Amino acid sequence: MKDKPQPPLAPPHVFVFLEIFACEGGIQSYVKDILYAYQQAAIASKVSRFPQAEVYLLRDSVDCDNPFDSRKNPNAPNVFRFHYCQSAWTWLGRFRLGGALLLRCWRRRPQWIVCGHIKLAPLIQFLGGWFDIPYTVMTYGKEVWKPLGSRYRQALCQAKTIWTISRYSRDRACASNDLDPGKFKMLPCAVDGEVFSPAPKPPHLLDRYNLQGSRVLMTVARLWSGDIYKGVDVTIRALPKILEVCPDVKYLVIGRGDDQPRLENLARELGIGDRVVFAGFVPTEELPDHYRVADAYIMPSQEGFGIVYLEAMATGIPVLSGDSDGSADPLQDGRLGWQVPHRDPEAVATACIEILQGSDRRCDGDWLRQETLAAFSSEALSRRLREILPRS
Question: The whole model's pTM is what?
Answer without folding.
Answer: 0.90
